[in-house]
């Protein structure tokens, strides 16, 4: 069925941050790699829509392990990134509105400290000092100084330097290669599906569902914000399975702009702005940071996260296949975890040991108890 | 209620047409008074006076910054606050901003759009005794030069990039038509004494922190001209953002062009919005004729290829983000440039660099996303 | 004639004009400083180019061409 003469050791489908990171890792391991994508430029999918917060998270031990591992890789990469990558170690500040959320701050603080992640617990005054534009009277917060932000499309481009790109929509991917909608095909020793929220098109049996998010970026207001700030209520939002949800999440860009998020909606497949949810999202942000109301927003947009039932990505062999791999399902953390994903995937493909256990992300794991 | 956005010729004509059909209409415009780009500051103009005589409600000094087509609601913002405005039918008559094309020095203070300088002068900027060069292309240059001269400006030169061989047949074709444009061109004779240089264009603007002189390619020879202001424009392009964001069954877009065409387009849109499709259709032949004429103007004044070569690698293309031409090398489309250089990502959202990139590389612009213009976050939350 | 303050200096503006007109009339040619440090001033006069952004009464990014001068406003360029 593949009549093409072109062949590679590995073909990756997807030139988002995940595909780019995997391609880089495999190429650096000595393989002949090609990346295909169907956008007008690299890094144009969810990668161009996401906030680019590089965070260590603790929803589960497996999520912690992957985010923590990846973050150390980000800091190694940071020195080599071009200015367009807008990498900045601004740190995160989780804010607690009340005593109940403050209890969560303490729980998190213990969790992170026990695992060697530096954190500071801030009281009400400490939060006000760290971020003077937050509303007064918050209970406190947790600062993670090693968290960072970046502009992922530029990072993807940098990671893809020197790697062969193939443009076109892939309509079929097997263990031996891929076929484009044009009918053209390419052979490969292995194929990796890194198609983000579009995964079900090529691998319909895998439980990835698009979860829509909205963001709004402002004009430049340098110095307005010091950290990426997230309300602790975010976790409730990130986990709700069906209801639409919003949470206060605001990020200082290197440009001085503020990126305001975030919303989550399942079961919506059009990319249009949903005004009602955008308004809820912005109202939530203004509740925490009243001064935002007088800043100019210049563009709002939407994007799709690839969500999975257990909120963990799918990294490894596609169930029932050989030499056909998957790297998707990163939900709202694909930028954070892209570099760790690439290591784990390459380790699995090359039979190398990994720095952290790979099983929690194995695509053939059971999702039954989450269904 | 029918809401018309824009109180220029098209918006005024639309509102009057709705009024004539006996329906309620409200007009919204960001300027302090009705008239649009062409009749701003001219309350005595026939159409402006008619508009006022009918006491059509005008919400002025506010900008439509956002809208919800499904809920038939606009969000209006002014200097201090915001409000919502509901409609049954919406007429978008927001006209056409100017096209700016990059050349070395075009970012210097003192370099204005041709319509831009005219607008500032109409709203009170004194130009008496200032040395002004008017350049670019199209009949607008003549109107601009005439109105600046009337205010006492010393017009050094009108540099029209179109070669004379194309201009004179065009002028002859015009002489049969009683159009606003003819009056515009007729002004050329009022402008007697001002050098009118066809096949000439500005190749660079120079000065220390502000414009002091320009370099001109005058029919093949480079000459330098001292001046205080340069008014340079390359025609108009319809503003499509509001129409795109509000697209839907209750939104009617009034076309735009010179004042005559815009009046016709506005009337058609107004009758359509009011439900009198017969009257609307009745005007279509006349409108089509005006469109054909407008298209022939556009062809005559098409920007020549040489102007693609003016910008050098250091010339800023995206003024909001200061992206020079050199950084766009190797980029394949607008989105590639946007994601990897920030070109078009700034406050104007590609309104200025978009047409320039289309001219330079044939790229099509950014997809419009709300807000329609930069808007305070709080405006989007307004309930009232 | 409204009196406004521009970068700390008093400027007399004509009645009913836009702030852009007031600034240009007073010989001010730097409305904003671009990212690479260039001075920029009003270009389009109609709220499209965003080159006339100034800080008015502490609010950054206000369009001088779209704002009427009011007695006592504080403008920073
Ligand atoms: C609103 C929002 C906020 C977010 N915030 C953050 C954050 O703060 N931090 C964080 O870490 N993550 C965040 N994310 C998540 C992050 O953006 C994604 O997890 C990540 O970008 C996924 O990258 P990817 O490479 O897997 O997919 P994508 O970037 O979507 O790339 C998919 C690629 O596959 C290609 N492709 C798809 N199908 C085909 C096909 N059939 N043929 C050829 N090519 C194909 C596309 O062209 C594209 O190149 C956010 C996401 C959203 C939506
Ligand atoms: C961290 C970060 C910071 C950002 N900062 C800025 C910023 O400062 N300024 C800014 O402007 N943006 C910014 N962005 C957003 C970015 O420019 C895009 O808006 C983002 O990629 C989301 O895309 P979009 O939905 O706006 O669509 P676009 O990027 O415009 O892409 C839409 C795509 O859909 C295609 N398309 C459009 N209409 C149709 C149709 N009808 N049918 C088929 N295809 C269609 C287009 O060709 C295009 O490929 C930022 C993004 C991030 C991640
Ligand atoms: S002069 Fe262009 S926006 Fe004000």
Structural commentary:
- The complex is a heterotrimer of chains A (371), B (384) and C (77).
- With 371 residues, chain A is of the alpha/beta class.
- Chain A has two domains: 7-49 and 152-207 and 310-370, FAD/NAD(P)-binding domain (3-Layer(bba) Sandwich); 89-145 and 208-307, D-Amino Acid Oxidase, subunit A, domain 2 (D-Amino Acid Oxidase, Chain A, domain 2, 2-Layer Sandwich), CATH 3.30.9.10.
- Chain A has helices at 17-28, 46-49, 61-78, 99-114, 124-130, 152-159, 199-202, 234-239, 275-288, 334-350; strands spanning 7-13, 33-37, 53-54, 92-96, 120-123, 140-144, 148-149, 164-167, 170-173, 177-180, 185-193, 209-220, 228-231, 245-252, 257-266, 296-307, 314-317, 324-328.
- In chain A, the strands form three sheets. In chain A, strands 1, 2, 8, 9, 10, 11, 17 and 18 form an eight-stranded mixed beta sheet that branches.
- In chain A, strand 9 (170-173) and strand 10 form a beta hairpin.
- The radius of gyration of chain A is 20 Å and the shape is globular.
- The model of chain A has no long low-confidence stretch (mean pLDDT 95).
- By secondary structure, chain B is α/β, with parallel strands linked by helices.
- Chain B has three domains: 2-97 and 237-296, FAD/NAD(P)-binding domain, CATH 3.50.50; 111-233, 3-Layer(bba) Sandwich (FAD/NAD(P)-binding domain), CATH 3.50.50; 310-384, no CATH class.
- Helix content of chain B is 33%, strand content 22%.
- Chain B contains twelve helices and 19 strands.
- Chain B has helices spanning 9-20, 36-39, 46-53, 114-122, 140-150, 164-174, 180-190, 241-245, 259-274, 277-300, 334-341, 353-361; strands at residues 2-5, 25-29, 58-60, 63-68, 73-77, 82-86, 89-92, 111-112, 131-136, 154-160, 196-197, 200-206, 213-218, 221-226, 229-233, 251-253, 316-318, 323-324, 375-376.
- The longest helix of chain B has 24 residues, at 277-300.
- By secondary structure, chain C is mainly β.
- Chain C has one helix at residues 19-25, and strands at residues 3-6, 9-12, 32-33, 39-40, 53-56, 59-63, 74-76.
- In chain C, strands 2-1-7-5-6 form a five-stranded mixed beta sheet, with helices on one face. Chain C has a two-stranded antiparallel sheet with strand order 3-4.
- The mean pLDDT of chain C is 95.
- Strand 16 of chain A pairs antiparallel with strand 19 of chain B, so a sheet runs across the interface.
